[in-house]
Amino acid sequence: MPITGDQTLLKQINRMAIVRRVRQQAGQSRADLAKETGLTKSTVSLLAQELIDEGWLVEHEIQITGALGRRPTPLSIDPHRLAMVGAELGVDRIHVVATSLTGEIVWQADEDFLSVDAEGVLQRLASLLIDGIVSVRAAGRQVLGAGVGLPGAVDESAGILKVAPNLGWRDIDVATPLRSALTNAGLGDLPLYLQNEADVAALGEFEFGEAPVPEPLVYLSLGIGVGAGVVVNDRLFLGSAGFAGEVGHSILQVAGPRCSCGREGCAEAYIGLRAIAQQSAGDGDVQASAGTLVARASAGDPLTISAVQRAGHYLGVLMQNLWTAFDPGRFVLGGPTCELGAPLLDAARETLGRYARDAGLPPPEVRVSRYGARAVAAGAAGMVLHKLVRPL
């Protein structure tokens, strides 16, 4: 299918091609960018100046090298004038952050919610998004847009959360009330993007990771639920209906423990926080939070350490299965379960390493998200950037 567009679109494509090249390799000159993009030097010079004026790029002082002739001026991404706002709608908590173009968090807020009434929760989400946008603008930054990571399968084009098992929600229109609230606050012109939590966290690691980021990149979201986001060929892998990545409901053990989805032996029933809490409870709290489990493990509680290590073992099994399916260049682990630290992560790496040794192959790289518990919110901000720098 041919792609057509007017001169405005063509210009935006060329502008964002320059931005992407500078993001991949800072310090390039206008002449370097002309060679890399295939644009003429005069076009690059004109567009680069526009991008500098708008806050996308910044020029650095020319370094004296002793060479004759005019020295090129290096360009890099400007971390000070533009921002994106991202939010995570979790199972019991809302996280909102604003990030710079280079991924630094410049504003943040959190709020717990007890009721899972969709209307009320979405009102609070909208209010926190608006607070973030207004605060960042007051600090002198232009906001490029807002993104939201949602805890379940998302119909991105319709803005509908199709199913969120851990909230008990089905077919909830998220986009309409959020856009309405933004419009009522005078912010209706801002782009708004919605996607599954693991997918947006994967985009955050991809967009804000140290370049070049190896592909495929597989992000595993570890909390009450377990999900995956996959970036391949510079794009999210979403599947035929947009719902790829529901790995928490892949089967790790036939006739295993019953999962919240009704199946038996799902990954969530071994790796999810509720499963770890139940395994560690003994006669205690079967609804323990990540913070409570961390405290117990730090105090040396043997039941908790054993439960966390067991979950880590099954996490390694899950990564092994995803390794054979996607051959990733990097796994990134994020979400509140990662707060359990070494007992979980060491067990996961040991299990994955054992499978690799058995196959005579080097294991894929495994990292923990740079954003910790805010990986989804930061990723939602990264989703805004991902969309804007790829106009097609």
What can you see in these coordinates?
InterPro entries: ATPase_NBD, Cro/C1-type_HTH, ROK, ROK_cs, Tscrpt_reg_IclR_N, WH-like_DNA-bd_sf, WH_DNA-bd_sf. It comes from Niveibacterium microcysteis. This is ROK family transcriptional regulator. With 392 residues, the chain is an alpha/beta fold. The protein has 3 domains: 71 residues, Arc Repressor Mutant, subunit A; 134 residues, 2-Layer Sandwich (Nucleotidyltransferase, domain 5), CATH 3.30.420; 157 residues, Nucleotidyltransferase, domain 5 (2-Layer Sandwich). The protein contains 12 helices and 15 strands. The strands form 4 sheets. The chain has a 5-stranded mixed sheet. It has a 5-stranded mixed sheet with strand order 13-12-11-14-15, sandwiched between helices. A 3-stranded antiparallel sheet has the order 7-8-9. Strand 7 and strand 8 form a beta hairpin. The two termini are 13 Å apart.
Number of structurally distinct domains: 3
Percent range of helical residues: 40-55%
Note poorly predicted spans.
none
Distance between the termini: 13 Å
SSE class: alpha/beta
Named CATH topology of the largest domain: Nucleotidyltransferase, domain 5
Give the CA-based shape. Answer: globular
- % residues in beta strands: 15-25%
Q: Taking all residues together, what is the mean pLDDT?
A: 92
Major beta-sheet overview: 5 strands, mixed
Number of helices: 12
Tally the beta strands. 15
Compressed to H and E, one letter per element, the order equals HHHEEEEEHEEEEHEHEEEHHHHEHEH
Strand order in the largest sheet: 5-4-3-6-10
Quick one: CATH superfamily of the largest domain?
Answer: ATPase, nucleotide binding domain
CATH level 1 name of the largest domain: Alpha Beta
CATH architecture of the largest domain: 2-Layer Sandwich
Radius of gyration: 22 Å
